[in-house]
Amino acid sequence: MGSGSPLVTIDGPAGAGKSEAARALARRLLVRYVDSGSIYRAITLEALDRGFDLDDTQALQELAAELKIEVETDPAKPPLVKVNGTPVTTRLRSPRVDETVSLVAKVPGVRQAVTRLLWDLSQGAVVEGRDMGSVVFPGVRKKVFLDANFETRVERRSRQAGDWGSDSTEHIEEDLRTRDEIDQLRESAPLRIPQGALVIDSTRLSVGEVVDRIVLYLNSK
Ligand code: C5P
């Protein structure tokens, strides 16, 4: 493993509220914040821009290894992701990336490249994704798994889609179903509740309430 261990990992499916909770938690604790999904999205966007065949796992693996990806980890600053020096943040949540990111993220060689980058970025940070507590940082003592019922997750994504550019509810629903399936069934680092993780169902909780629960958990033995 690289330079150090994160403070806490937060895993869960899309729309469970991980990003908002992780960012708010990091702001409260004055530590860094790493959104691992944004790195998978950046690689996917680059592959789409270059017209890659997404079945070509060799090409995807080489691309992931060669790209220089930089992410802003200060939770008090706006999110920023750069690929080879070019900011791509505003393009990471397009419907096209939503539809294809799970295909890119299931390639083992892509996961290895992202895992290496995460090891370098995450010392003392709040890190969120799908396999943070189970595969990338299995030795971390504090792990959270954040979930919510399907309708709530769709509703949250619809609200976010309104902020990022429009996408229909039907399309979001279909995208979440497909991504859930690929993320849970893939061979390499599938979405799982990490052993010993605190499971939080955020269906009826505000972001502040989720953060309060995590802070209590971090302060417990
Ligand atoms: O969290 P977000 O929805 O932005 O993640 C986008 C996609 O990236 C997920 O659907 C998943 O396929 C992939 N991902 C992953 N492992 C992570 C984080 C994200 O496979 N740790």
Walkthrough of the structure:
- Helix 1 crosses helix 9 and helix 3 packs parallel to helix 5.
- Strand 4 and strand 5 form a beta hairpin.
- This protein has a single domain, classed as 3-Layer(aba) Sandwich (Rossmann fold), CATH 3.40.50.
- Strands 2-6-1-7-8 form a 5-stranded parallel sheet.
- The chain has 9 helices and 8 strands.
- The two termini are about 25 Å apart.
- The mean pLDDT is about 95.
- Bound molecules: cytidine-5'-monophosphate.
- Cytidine-5'-monophosphate (C5P) binds next to helix 2, helix 4 and helix 8.
Structural class: alpha/beta
Beta-sheet strand percentage?
A: 5-15%
Number of distinct helices: 9
* Main β-sheet, spatial strand arrangement: 2-6-1-7-8
CATH fold-level label: Rossmann fold
SSE pattern, N- to C-terminal: EHEHHEEEHHEHEHHEH
**CATH architecture name:** 3-Layer(aba) Sandwich
Rounded to the nearest angstrom, the radius of gyration is 16 Å
Q: Enumerate the spans where pLDDT stays under 50 for 5 or more consecutive residues.
A: none
Task: Using the coordinates above, name the CATH class.
Answer: Alpha Beta
What do the pLDDT scores average to? 94
